[in-house]
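Run folding on both entries below.
>entry_1
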Amino acid sequence: MADTLGQVEYGSTRNPFNYDKFEQINRALTTGWLTLDEITQQLNLFGDESQDTYLESLELAVRMHIEDYLGLPIFPVSYRVYYGLSSIYASPVCLDLPEISFTDSYNSGSVVIDSVKYYNGNTPSVLITLASSNYYYDSTGNKVILPNGTPSNVSTQRTSPIVVEYTVNPNFTQAFPVIKQAGLLLLTHLYNNRSDSTYGKLEKIPFGVDVLLRPYKPLVM
């Protein structure tokens, strides 16, 4: 069923939030999480430094997998989110952030809004940055609030004229021993199996990675 806003119709989608799309724009790709000492002890590779470069590449893959699986930033991750015209016909404007971030609603620094921008109605349209006094982050709803609404000269010709960039800072749970042990288990699995696991052979690690991580995977209602 479609809602009509002025002369523009917007059909319903399966996305319960009001953003059109989002993309990852910055992520730590070199910083280590599990130390080489922890890894070599896990793998019983004492005194063998010949595989350090390979182990560091595995560690990065493991860390990124756990970040993605839990939506839990072990190191800061930045995103860009786009919002369509249907998001801006309200005052205040409430812009949902994607439910991908393992945020702490009691820690105001867990999410940092880097910028809120909009395309104006000029031809060609120009991307304008809003002053930080014109918006704030509501941690209880994981939303960016524009209390005075959007500027009157926002473009109605752009599909997604509002753009928000934000950074999710590391969550304190990333240091939990159970999270790190899951990382070491997964690294061991990747080290010992350097090709895809086939049916009937190590498809899952019993009582392993999933079991350790599942209690920390956020529920999105």
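>entry_2
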Amino acid sequence: MGKVLQLHNDAERIAPSIKDGKVGLRAVPPKRRYNADVRSREYFMPDEAEALIAAAGKVGRHSHRDSTLLLLAYRHGLRVSELVALRWDQVDLTAALLHVRRLKNGTPSTHPLRGPELRALRRLHRASEQGVVYVFMTERGSPITTSTVRKMVQRAGELAGLGSPVHPHMLRHSTGYKLANDGHDTRAIQHYLGHKNIQHPVKYTEMSPQRFNAFWRN
């Protein structure tokens, strides 16, 4: 029975192909698994996000760069594409401001930089070569890639013992969840994350347990 099942599974991964008038077989990649089949949720709890950032800061030659990148992703809800495109002219270390340029037709905004991000960015800036344009660079002097960020997050997730596979966009979801859980206004969260449509941040307030704090008080 096991052999028959294996043959059936193998057959699902093979499809007919025609080349030079001859019928052959070609391999078909397995179907992508749904996120819900891999993880029970698509965001980190605050302690998990902090553990992920801390783990990134403990390994590799670029540990400070990596932990700073994840810290900004979490504190400011940045997409991977926004992180790798982040320039020093968007960072005002004197006024402690981050000028966020949103992609995917998002709304730009200006965020305050708090102590942890400001200290991390100042240290990264001091270590950067003069005239460097982008914040997160490789040893070869080019901006890091989205693929590098994905690998970075996967490695940090394993080191932090988070269990299920993780991906960078979970940090952006975690931003929305944290802000909603802290009781911030949905419209303010929308503007902070750069959403054009308020329906996107509504999902964070729907997930927040604070909505039910008045239930069953006795």
